[in-house]
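In this supplementary section we document a worked example of the pipeline. Step one takes a protein sequence of length 250 as its only input; no multiple sequence alignment statistics are reported here. Step two produces a three-dimensional model, which step three serialises into structure tokens for compact storage. The input and output of this example are shown verbatim.
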Amino acid sequence: MKAIVCVKRVVDYNVRIQVRRDGSGVVTDNVKFSMNPFDEIAVEEAVRLKEKGELTEVIVVSIGGPKNEETLRSALAFGADRAIHIRDEGDIQPLTAARAFAEVFKREDATLLLAGKQAIDDDANQTGQMVAGLLDIAQATFASSVTLAPDKATVTREVDAGLETLEVDLPAVITADLRLNEPRYLKLPDIMKAKKKPLEVVTLEELGVERHAGLKTLKTFEPPTRSKGVMVSTPAELVAALKSKGLLPA
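The serialised model returned by step three reads:
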């Protein structure tokens, strides 16, 4: 059983984001980039499934410029078998990415597509769902546990009321939540081995994917500064404070 894992190169989560003066986006010059943390969890899960014998091959896929190769090499160091780099310097919107991942999924005749539930740069949370829609296959999002059988996957996911367990037919798309696993620490020998693993480069045109540009960022701005918090000693004080702010009826 072959799995495709989608990985995105994003500004590292430890970087303090700064908005450009003209509001056209955030500052990315001389900023550290790394693999989207949710995608890192998806890669780790795929490698664990392979180590348990439930997958036969793990292929990592990313879309972007030449530096995306660094992200793919990191994913290979986790234990993925090979990588596909969809080289493109343009603005990749979720639907374009979903179309490209769907084409790779079909071309590789894969059974499972894993991805992070969302990317930390745009928080769009839609690419995985779009891939499932384009392929007309099952999907399970926000997974905190995944078990595979020959023709189905059992997925536990967190919902507002607690935990929900789903059983979906394969092929399927599964997106990873934070609690799915804790990614392994990369060792130097694995990083060195990853440099020799196969990495194929393709373009959107070669995949026959039409670019979609339906989204436009109008302005980016800093969030408003939070007001100072108030410490209360008793529930009664909390209720009184909420009433004074009009958050509870008087």
